């Protein structure tokens, strides 16, 4: 038998899943949505929400369904995009499972409610997960690390930081997103100058927010540009 025919005969069936790395800011901390697995494998271990894609749905539809079933969150209102594919043959002890990872972002998302094969769903601090010796189930620690770096990179070149802020926000609130995600202190005056000098990044609403103390702060909304020119590069602040 030709080598290519022999290789073809050894192909086994694979399953397709979706996993979601969902981030929000709560109390000036970057949080990721986790579930506690209620079934084997990895019973009781923390994991990203996700599951098998059904035969009659697209990958995106599967991601939205799993988010709704496992955490009770409406993903259609989030910024949702594909992060990448993960297909190590040993990533799932049940067999060959290829997963498509999604990155999702939203402002101050609600407390999740676990369902289906998740015992519970909860927000976990990204900074505290680094101290978790056991790590996440499957290869979800790798997916989480990739997702975090993707967010940090996108903050440099796109207006994705505004996704964490809601409809209107102050420049101080926008700066907090950068500081929390990058882990850097950013000089307020320099940050304000760079944001306002980046065409289409933000636009004024003409309104102000009155804080408990101090002067009223101008409110902004996301502008018409998604790609930032010039970009806001990391490394210009001080490590927090």
Helix-strand layout with pairing:
Blueprint: H1 3-9, E1 15-26, E2 29-37, E3 46-47, E4 50-52, H2 59-71, E5 79-86, E6 97-105, E7 118-125, H3 126-129, H4 140-157, H5 171-182, E8 184-185, H6 188-196, E9 202-209, E10 217-222, E11 238-239
Structure description:
This protein has 240 residues and is of the alpha+beta class. Helix content is 26%, strand content 29%. It has six helices and eleven strands. Strands 1, 2, 3, 4, 5, 6 and 7 form a seven-stranded mixed sheet that branches. The N and C termini lie far apart (62 Å).
Q: How do you describe this structure in short?
A:
Strands 1, 2, 3, 4, 5, 6 and 7 form a 7-stranded mixed sheet that branches. The chain has a two-stranded antiparallel ribbon with strand order 8-11. The protein has a two-stranded antiparallel ribbon with strand order 9-10.
Q: Tell me, what's the shape? A: elongated
Strand segment count: 11
Q: What portion of residues is helical?
A: 25-40%
Radius of gyration based on Cα positions: 21 Å
Low-confidence stretches: none
- Distinct helical segment count: 6
Termini separation: 62 Å
Structural class: alpha+beta
What integer is the average pLDDT? 89
* Sequence of secondary-structure elements: HEEEEHEEEHHHEHEEE
Strand content: 25-35%
Main sheet makeup: 7 strands, mixed
């Amino acid at each position: 038998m030709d080598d290519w025919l022999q290789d073809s005969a050894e192909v086994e069936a694979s399953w397709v899943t979706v996993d979601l790395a969902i981030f929000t800011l709560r109390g000036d901390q970057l949080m990721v949505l986790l579930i506690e697995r209620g079934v084997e494998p990895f019973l009781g271990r923390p994991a990203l929400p996700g599951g098998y894609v059904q035969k009659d749905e697209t990958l995106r539809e599967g991601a939205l369904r799993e988010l709704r079933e496992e955490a009770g969150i409406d993903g259609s209102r989030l910024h949702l995009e594909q992060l990448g594919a993960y297909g190590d043959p040993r990533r799932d002890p049940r067999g060959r499972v290829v997963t498509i990872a999604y990155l999702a972002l939203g402002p101050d998302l609600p407390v999740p409610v676990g369902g289906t094969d998740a015992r519970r769903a909860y927000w976990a601090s990204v900074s505290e997960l680094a101290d978790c010796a056991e790590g996440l189930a499957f290869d979800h620690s790798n997916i989480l690390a990739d997702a975090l770096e993707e967010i940090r990179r996108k903050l440099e070149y796109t207006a994705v930081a505004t996704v964490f802020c809601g409809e209107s926000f102050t420049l101080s609130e926008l700066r907090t997103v950068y500081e929390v995600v990058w882990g850097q202190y950013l000089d307020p005056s320099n940050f304000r100058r760079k944001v306002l000098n980046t065409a289409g990044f933000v636009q004024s609403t003409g309104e102000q927010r009155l804080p408990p103390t101090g002067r009223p702060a101008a409110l902004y909304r996301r502008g018409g540009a998604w790609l930032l020119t010039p970009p806001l590069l990391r490394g210009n602040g001080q490590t927090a």
